[in-house]
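CATEGORY: protein folding

GOAL: derive structure tokens
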Amino acid sequence: MGLPAGIAIGSGVIDAYAGWIGTVGAKVKLSEDTLDSHIPQNDVSQAFTRLAAVAGTSTCHLAMSEKPVFVPGVWGPYRDVLIPEYWMAEGGQSATGELLKHVIETHPAYNEATSLAESFNTNIYDYLNEHLRDLQQQQSAPTISYLGRHFFLYGDLFGNRSPIADANMKGSVVGLSPDKSVDGLALYYYGTMEFIALQTRQIIETMNKAGHQISSIFMSGSQCQNAILMELMATACDMPVLIPRYVHAAVVHGAAMLGAKAASTDAQGNGESLWSIMDRMSKAGKAVHPNKDATEKKLLGKKYEVFLEMCESQQRFRKGVDEVVEGWGKK
């Protein structure tokens, strides 16, 4: 490549892992909405309570632990992947951004909603978020979640990666209506966001039950810009969601930290620790806290029970049918 001899070369990582590096080292004060840079230096042990969620077309969930934690449906744990002597676990949702895109683009009101979004000089996601807020006001609803209280969407259209690791999972909906309007599209869109948030809770609860200690979500990726989704995730999971200062650059920021790590290393291989670099170079962002409305928490808690039942029922239905047709048509 024409590089001079002796130049420091940083180790490459998978893009989602660079997102972990670029986000979880941020100095945070979880009791406040706005994070500042005047908080004492982080200790690496704080990383054990922080789930990095790198959300784009799909979502990758990364968690570090001091000891190996084996979780059904979650890859790993892998030792020495990012920081020596510590373990990484990797879960994920097969489709999140792609699921939202699919639900919107296949609805009868998609073209109408797209035209309306263009007339307001915005994208369709921001337009639908604003439409949901308008519907909340028009119907005097206490929260946006109240609008979708009788709409139940299970969204594993592309199979399930975590935590049940079932590639045969599909989607299902309870609460169908003949509504082909933008209002109907907004309800489907909301239901999809609710599914993403509830499945995130399922993944976290599965990981914590196995021995992890996750108590906050550090987001990166395009979905950070979706305020309603971030609020839903915080309330559904009952923990703060941390959004990085540079929403579009968290992965690149992590890669830059790897470069700084390489540059700090001398000829004997001694250098600054990666966590120290993450602590020094991470910028404060914004915290989204769970809604304090007790009834909304109860509503999402009940919706979570329905979500789990829809997940389990689908597997049970499929198993029952497979037992009936086993060997059918085979010689």
Q: What stands out?
A: Residues 36-40 have pLDDT under 50 and may be disordered. The CA atoms of residues 60 and 247 lie 16 Å apart. The two ends are 60 Å apart (CA to CA).
